[in-house]
Amino acid sequence: MPSVKPSFWQINACVRCVRQPASVHGAPVRLLSSSSTAREELQTQPPPPPPVPAPAATASAPNDSNAATAENPEYMKKWGTLDPSSVVFKRDERRLLRREGLQPVGSRRRRALLRRSANTPDIPFEQLPYQCFQEARKILLEDRQEKLKQIETQTLRLKNLIAQDPAVSGGQAAKEARMRSMRNYINELVILADINDPVVKKKFEDGQGDMNKPIYRHLASLKWRKYKRLVLEQRISQMNIVPDLLPALDLAADIDLGFGRKNIPPGEFVDSEMSESMPRLNVQCFEAGEKLVSVVVVDADVPVPEQDGFTYRCQFIASNILISPTQTSIPLIRIDQDDNKITDPAAKRIVLPWQAPLAQRGAPYHRLAVIVLEQKDAKALNVLDVKRTRRHGFILRSFVDKHQLKPLTATLFRTQWDDNMAGVMERAGMESMINVELKRKRLEPLPHKRRTERMR
Amino acid sequence: MNLSTLRPLFRPLGSPQFRTPNLLHRSAQTTPRPTNAPSPTSPFSTTTRLQKRSKGAKNTTDPRITQIRYHLQHPLTPRPLRLSRLRSLRHWTIHRAWLLFLRKRRWAEERDLERQYESMRAACEHLRLLDDQGMRVSDTEGGGQGPDAGRLGTRGREVGRLYRGAMLKRGVWGSVPVEYARTQTDFPGREGWNVGWTRQV
């Protein structure tokens, strides 16, 4: 009987059924499922039968069958190399399954795409062969060349101006004004040269922009100002941080606050246990150069029952922290750990250690403002001097004036009495506050106004 | 639009509506009909009406109705295109290039207008400082500027005479500017129009 090449259509086995019999010894395999069909297929599915005719089979059949189980028969060899990550045709997928016992990797569309891109060279985005796109690129490149030339001439003029005698320029003040405006113009030109580049735009949108370059800083600043800054400004103004703590606050850097793993949006309530440890800040400034900043955390709603009002308390001060457009992280816990290793008290960066925010029962929520202040001319503050500031009744405005700081950015969070507050108070050593509940003073109601009086 | 979607599909031939009303048909009826029963009315139109399909979901609405409603509801603005990332970046690039091109053209036009204006101004300035010999004089000898702009300069009436004449911009007919009626000449006369001229007999 001539051997019949088994056709693929007849084989309906799952991978397991295919894989296991592909063992070298051809030993019967135990199946997990006991369904009869699977067993049948296992029995009917041969290690591929030898194509040799019957008379010669007696001697060579055992050898051939052994050889067939060890390596693939001729027709299988003709299939060529089948890679699970690049088979595209259904026929090849079936062959892969049959011969190697492997499933193809990923979806067929993905495999087709990868295969196509492996065969054809990957064209970089700016060389894509779309006519209108390339014409547009040509125009924009011409404009970029013009801008570069303008930048050259302007820098030359600025250089000459700096070298000029102030008497010729019309006085020192006029010369400085002119220098300032020339520098601004050059910065504008630098941004205009790259603003039309789609590669720059794509890189920025993917988060790969180098913040040392002015164009990426500019794009990041635009993006921040479009939404996040507006939200932050709204929270700060509606929580009245601005008239209470500072007269004015022009936010100039993006700030992110987090406790532990959780990121806190501005103004959100923070659980007392979470705020017991120091937060981590991320401050992204959009101007070139390094800055030294101080971080001050102020509680703006400390109740003073005797005066029936509120006062301020400073929870935390840290100074001389280095920040730049590429170094945005302020991990306060790690700074604290580094401080513990430093012996010189004047070199420590944490001036007033973190006090857990506390709120008594019955009191309204406490606003805790985290304000980042720029130190003047990037000069280090005298830590021992700042250490002497009093916590209770801390006025931020005087602090800012005294140490010549400039508010860079701010954020805030709120705290109120919750289940963990008692524990926090205990650990902070303020047991006396735990059992105190504040209540509003009951006001005498006004005398009832007669109807006609109300209507006047 | 593909009108085949509106064409009716199911018009059975044997339906009662298909049969045309026939007088012969009616006269063949012999059985008396009660007067209360309404007489069988014929449909106004002879077009066969659509029948309900026997099979199929009864909830499907006529596709013609949905098409009519869709097209009646069509807003003026088309729905937004959704482009892939690279496609939208290419679109953005082309848009920026076009806007840049328009900006350059606009600035060139403005510069051209400015150039024309400056040239007109320079010409008027030269005319203002021109004396009767055709020589340009210094600023103090010509009038027409400074705190008292109506005053003549130190040289008097002759300097800037043509300028002052050119600056008379009273209308000719109503508000038509006089420049439309004034022809350009190299040597305009002093008197202008001689009203009392008569023919020498």
Automatic annotation (TrEMBL), chain A:
Residue ranges, annotated region (Disordered): 34-73
Keyword hit for Cell division: no
Primary localization class, coarse: mitochondrion
Keywords: Mitochondrion
Biased amino acid composition, Pro residues: 45-54
SUPFAM superfamilies, per database record: PEBP-like
Gene3D superfamilies, A to Z: 1.20.58.1180, PEBP-like (3.90.280.10)
UniProt-listed Pfam families: PBP
Keyword field contains Mitochondrion: yes
Alphabetical list of InterPro entries matching this protein: PEBP (IPR008914), PEBP-like_sf (IPR036610), PEBP_euk (IPR035810)
Localisation: Mitochondrion
Low complexity compositional bias, start-end: 55-70
GO cellular component: mitochondrion
PANTHER family named in the record: PHOSPHATIDYLETHANOLAMINE-BINDING PROTEIN, PHOSPHATIDYLETHANOLAMINE-BINDING PROTEIN 4
Similarity comment: Belongs to the phosphatidylethanolamine-binding protein family. Mitochondrion-specific ribosomal protein mL38 subfamily.
Function: Component of the mitochondrial ribosome (mitoribosome), a dedicated translation machinery responsible for the synthesis of mitochondrial genome-encoded proteins, including at least some of the essential transmembrane subunits of the mitochondrial respiratory chain. The mitoribosomes are attached to the mitochondrial inner membrane and translation products are cotranslationally integrated into the membrane.
Protein name per Swiss-Prot or TrEMBL: Large ribosomal subunit protein mL38
From TrEMBL, chain B:
GO CC terms, sorted: mitochondrion
Gene3D superfamilies reported in the protein's UniProt record: 6.10.250.3440
GO MF annotation terms: structural constituent of ribosome
Sequence segments annotated as region (Disordered): 1-63
InterPro entries according to UniProt: Ribosomal_mL40_fung
Gene Ontology biological process: mitochondrial translation
Protein name per the record: Mitochondrial ribosomal protein L28-domain-containing protein
Species whose genome carries this gene: Massariosphaeria phaeospora
